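From: lab user (bench 3)
To: helpdesk
Subject: output format question, protein + zinc ion

Hello, I'm new to running complex predictions and I'm not sure whether the block I got back is the full result or only part of it. Here's what I submitted:
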Amino acid sequence: MIQSLRGMRDIAGREARIFQWIEERARYFFELYGYREIKLPVMERTELFSRGIGDESDIVQKEMYTFEDRKGRSVTLRPEGTAGVVRHYIENGFDKRDPLKKFYYSGAMFRYERPQKGRYRQFYQFGVEAFGMESPLIDADTIAMLVDYFRDIGIESPLVKVNNIGCPGCRPDYNRALQGYLRNHEERLCPDCRKRIETNPLRVLDCKRESCRKVVADSPDIADFLCDSCRSYDEEFQKLLSARKIPFERDRFLVRGLDYYVKTVFEIHGGEGAQNALMGGGRYDGLVEALGGQPVPGFGFAIGVDRLASLLMETSLFEDDPGKLFMVWNLEEQALLLEKCDILRKCGVSVDFLPDKRSFSNQLKYAHRQGYRHVVILGEEEALSEQIHLKNMETGDETYVSPYDIIEHLI
Ligand SMILES: [Zn+2]
Ligand SMILES: [Zn+2]
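Helpdesk reply: Thanks, we reran it on our side. This is the complete output you should expect:
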């Protein structure tokens, strides 16, 4: 027997149904808000990710599936989606002549991580990127889209956490103040954070260790360091969220890992007190330039589908989803079965049957085991009728209905 690779898994049955639902609804909402789909290659030149994500990052250092193709070029299975979208944007010259673009993507990503519960080497993400727009309107509108989406798929009380992490004009001042503070408390920080003081002090703010959290609790607040432009941007952004009735709170310890983020960063949590974020994103005004394009502002986010699916697996969503109708049949002329199925399917009803000849009672038992709530009885007599002989498996009631009215009887 050949087994699947470590950290790679199949998604089937109810979970596949939930994946489908998560992605279908995401497409619906993204399109509604003016984003259009882009399908990207799974493999790119390695340098796209090392430049786009950063040579120093864990992803690039330890987690990429990188290998040489048959001509000896270094290629990498995409560990995330943004770099590919930016590559497309620059390659097509949009940054030079047509900068306003809104994309969404969806698909498998690959990271060579130690497999653990909920973490896979092939995982699924979707996300959006809006280019060429530097306005709190796009930040607020996109976050509103996400809140609408999460509520729609069954996350009842999504909570948005926001922060403004400044711009290249004002963040250096803050970094210096933060570094000064952290150096004074160095001995209480974890070894990683001690290194971060010099390399990326902002990241100390979101370290999960208790000792580090205590230190940063009294650290300087970036809100006191924002320049006028960042401050008014943030005020307008929060005003728009309130006007749109988005439940949000400011979290001053919320930062995004990558250097090119500016101004708005955000996360959405499953509700008050929910530990891990459902997703995160923000404004990245330096990324297009970092990958060789013009300095074009961007705003985007990514959502991990696996985690969202595992949350919805805990609900009753699709728990009982055998399809709508099952045909219990006994006919000399088998073509009549397909004819009846065709009529029902044209009415938009999902219909299935067993292709081998079995007794009525045997077929009914099968339908019961599969969890069908309704079956259609199709014998020689019914085959001649325009009416459908419908049986409710829960009550035992039998009725004759027109195929055009059948949907009402199935709810
Ligand atoms: Zn600023
Ligand atoms: Zn730490």
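A quick orientation on your result: The chain has 16 helices and 16 strands. Let us know if anything else is unclear.
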